[in-house]
Amino acid sequence: MAKECRRRTAMRVFAAGGVILAWMAVGAGTALVSSSCRDKEMRRHVKLNDFDALALKPPMGWNSWNRFGCAVDEQLVRSMAEAMVRSGMAAAGYEYVVIDDCWQTARDAEGNIVADPERFPSGIKALADYVHSLGLKFGLYSCAGDKTCEGRPGSRGFEEPDARRYAAWGVDYLKYDWCHTEGLQAEPAYRKMRAALEAAGRPVVFSICEWGRSKPWLWARGVGHLWRTTGDIKDNWESVVKILDLQVGLEDYAGPGGWNDPDMLEVGNGGMTADEYRAHFSLWCLLAAPLMAGNDLRTMSRETTFILTNSDVIAVNQDALGVQGRRIRKEGGLEVWAKPLADGALAVALFNRGQVKERISVSWPELGVETSTCFVRDLWRKRDVGRFLSGFAADVPSHAVVLVKVKPSNIID
Ligand code: GLA
Q1: CB 68 near ligand 1, within 6 Å
Q2: Model's pTM, two decimal places?
Q3: Which residue in 17, 63, 101, 377 is deepest, having the highest Cβ count within 10 Å?
């Protein structure tokens, strides 16, 4: 086995006779997958339990926080679920409709969590039923602390009754935050809620949101399905690139069943240009990040819909190999990022952070590609560009990404 084959980490998952199996090539290193290596890799069978199998690909959905903050109510959520179907988002793969903070107001005399009766007069169960009736899944938010970040009742000390209530309501996804957690340690606190969810008996995607404070990538696989790696995203370019830089080095921790979460999408919220939103979305896809839209799906511009529903770009994110892409070159503000794909191709982002248009090139050897000719497809344009002998170059506007799929010619479909 070639040395570089042993140095990379990747995981593949497939179903065999109803049992989910995964193979993993173990080791540390930065080498990308080369197609000839892939077949020679050490195979170690790992049985994934049903919990891990809930997120074999990065979860996709919508969350209320980035656009609406505390201004949530049942009409908003119903109309957003309808818009998710009407706009083509559901067809593109978005599935979870998640209410973030502020749906809850108090606990009753028995300690049961109470949804805001003015904003959710029909109750959470009826809302979940409606979302399910549209073929979508339903999610809620709570917090490991005494209170949520907006001061609503948290789940500390109420993990089991809360988990049972979520199960009874039909909750499929729980985002679990980290405010007001004085005296708590993250790993046991999240394990406690995970155990409560399991005991409640309903499959729930568990989204760990402690902002990367305790390096959750080191412990959260098998506890949650996604874990935030940073503080909150904001709807501006500086926030996107700051979060992007913090993902470097975390690549080996992501894979089927558990994903690094660089926070939800800001695409369509108005604070960035179309090129910046395309770059944000391209890079989140390349990072195998969960894709939780954070905009108003009812009033999306054509450009926003185009970005959020591009099937070629989403396919990079949802690729079955489940490998997080990595930065393979940085020269000033010009960068090349690459993500190996299950069919032996690579998704490659040529990324220009600078203020003016620049030409960015990539050579096949630096992608770890051993053959001399590759087919290149432009994923935003959904157009094959041609065969290239030793590499590819493109003019990339300021704050933009050119995203291509590079397929070595010796790979047979
Ligand atoms: C924290 C989280 C955000 C959001 C808010 C809600 O800041 O990181 O994503 O859930 O709380 O209060």
Answers
A1: no
A2: 0.91
A3: 63
